[in-house]
Amino acid sequence: MASIFSNVKMGPTIEVFALTKRFSEDTNQNKVNLGVGAYRTDEGKPWVLPMVKTVENQISADMTLNHEYLPVAGLPAFRTAASALILGKDNPAILENRVEGIQVQGGTGGIRLTAEFLKRNFGSDVVYVSKPTWGNHKTVFSHAGFSQIKEYRYWDAKNLGVDFEGLKEDLQNAPEGACVILHAVAHNPTGNDPTMDQWAQIADIIEARKLFPLLDCAYQGFATGDLEADAQVVRYFVKRGFELFIAQSFSKNFGLYNERIGNLCIVTKTPDVIPQIRSQMEIIARTMWSNPSHHGARIVAMVLANPAYFEEWKSQVATMANRIKEMRQMMFNKLRQKKVPGSWNHILQQIGMFSFTGLTQDQSRVMVEKHHVFMLLNGRISMAGLTTKNVDYVVDAIQDAISSH
Ligand code: PLP
């Protein structure tokens, strides 16, 4: 007898997770995973931050802790500390009680909560995302019911940099009230951020067009190794007086990928609207996950609250960022030494975890199918997957992919 589900169709595969699966099943000894955006050591292994381990040991030894439900909006100490981390603890918005944090399921949870909130409380139906953008932005907003998912130009494939004129023109044409997702630091997938002068012009347009900025901040600390420097775009927008949300993720900078830890930081013009916004956010959270999980939030809160732990964690974030920067430099040097066609300057100009190599879809396919170098077909590689041991192999594969297409 046929199942009542027999009409259910296969959906499209989720590229980055499909790549990881293929990578783990691949028996080729040279295989390299440059797909997933997760930090790896120079041995190609995941890294549990020693600071996280220390705090986890403390948590497990503490017999007074329990597994009671958290409030719907999450762990208060985490929400306050996370908001202070991105805004700076002396930010006037915090001092004037114009900030709230809601604990969410990673950066993704913050983006989804924003979409659900805007749809219900703002009558919002239009969102603008960069072209290209992180693979989940469009789908999160469309699943939340946004009917108009628009793109603003971002990547200039010819010049391998930001298409700033295209970006401005597209945002200038956006309708009033549209939500605009901005990558707060280390744009995914291109690794190219606007300059501060360009950010000022973007802010002018957002202000003039009355758009609503959602700052997606998944890489604080990863771009430069400095948490403050990587927060400067967010702080600039707050200083300009925008009402905005920031979807903060602690997946990368704490290495807590599967703990799903995020904070949706809400900044308003006046404190009086905060309780209402929080109450609407709580209603949405209650229907989606009811209340968030405790473990990761506890880790982040304990580290951020303790000055000695905070310093240690900062140096571990810098360790990750610096290894990525070294791999960027090493890859560039080898591409030049081996005379692989192209200037490859863009590899050095890009920041953060990813590099948009400029490889075409066909060339990227050669990387995956022939050389077992797993990467996205749009040409994105995760620099964190490169090591001193595999960089030669990867560069040789690039050379072959380019010469064969
Ligand atoms: N936003 C961007 C730009 C990202 O790159 C990512 C993760 O790769 C996310 C959001 C999602 O972060 P999380 O894994 O914490 O949900």
Automatic annotation (TrEMBL):
<comment type="subunit">
    <text>Homodimer.</text>
</comment>
<feature type="domain" description="Aminotransferase class I/classII large">
    <location>
        <begin position="30"/>
        <end position="398"/>
    </location>
</feature>
<dbReference type="GO" id="GO:0004069">
    <property type="term" value="F:L-aspartate:2-oxoglutarate aminotransferase activity"/>
</dbReference>
<dbReference type="InterPro" id="IPR015424">
    <property type="entry name" value="PyrdxlP-dep_Trfase"/>
</dbReference>
<dbReference type="Pfam" id="PF00155">
    <property type="entry name" value="Aminotran_1_2"/>
</dbReference>
<protein>
    <recommendedName>
        <fullName>Aspartate aminotransferase</fullName>
        <ecNumber>2.6.1.1</ecNumber>
    </recommendedName>
</protein>
<dbReference type="InterPro" id="IPR015422">
    <property type="entry name" value="PyrdxlP-dep_Trfase_small"/>
</dbReference>
<dbReference type="GO" id="GO:0006532">
    <property type="term" value="P:aspartate biosynthetic process"/>
</dbReference>
<dbReference type="InterPro" id="IPR000796">
    <property type="entry name" value="Asp_trans"/>
</dbReference>
<keyword id="KW-0032">Aminotransferase</keyword>
<keyword id="KW-0663">Pyridoxal phosphate</keyword>
<dbReference type="GO" id="GO:0005829">
    <property type="term" value="C:cytosol"/>
</dbReference>
<dbReference type="GO" id="GO:0030170">
    <property type="term" value="F:pyridoxal phosphate binding"/>
</dbReference>
<dbReference type="InterPro" id="IPR004838">
    <property type="entry name" value="NHTrfase_class1_PyrdxlP-BS"/>
</dbReference>
<comment type="similarity">
    <text>Belongs to the class-I pyridoxal-phosphate-dependent aminotransferase family.</text>
</comment>
<dbReference type="InterPro" id="IPR004839">
    <property type="entry name" value="Aminotransferase_I/II_large"/>
</dbReference>
<keyword id="KW-0808">Transferase</keyword>
<dbReference type="InterPro" id="IPR015421">
    <property type="entry name" value="PyrdxlP-dep_Trfase_major"/>
</dbReference>
